[in-house]
């Protein structure tokens, strides 16, 4: 069986230095070797023992393990920028537990993108007849924006922004994708339109053609 050696390290060990820790580990290995040898003789075990290359003593102090055998770990300590728009396209439905207090206040929003969590949305944001006719909205796409997600809850909290239309149609699906990725698809302002050529039909001048590579 593998021999596991646990090494405890604290501030007192740091004062003695690395050599002191190595000496402690060596002594532990010798003691365990003697103990296992005596147990083997008592049980009448004889023969040749072959040790695998990776069957050496295991040490809990990561500073004694070569870098190539270490699995580095980390934890998130701060969010610099929220890249996701917190908006998602999906469907709304009634909660399963009709007797709960939450059923009277919230509906469940299920995003089309399964990487986004399911969201509790207020019934006040839903259509007025949603509670009485939920089947009428089973194929209706909605945009929901996540506003909070508590640590002790399996579902996020959000608000319904708007109804897009029937699922499967090009315009609602396209608007949902653009909203999810934060793309501004509103009409161009007059200032932007003024940058375009006003004298139509517009053609490329010979001077511009001489400076450009024609890829037509």
TrEMBL record:
Localization per record: Cytoplasm
Residues forming the CSD2 domain are 107-182
* GO cellular component terms attached to this protein's record: P-body
What is the first-listed, main subcellular location in coarse terms? Answer: cytoplasm
Q: Which GO terms describe its biological process?
A: miRNA catabolic process; mRNA catabolic process
Keywords carried by this UniProt record: Cytoplasm, Exonuclease, Hydrolase, Magnesium, Metal-binding, Nuclease, RNA-binding
> Recorded GO terms, molecular function?
3'-5'-RNA exonuclease activity; metal ion binding; poly(U) RNA binding
Name the UniProt record assigns to this protein: DI3L2 exonuclease
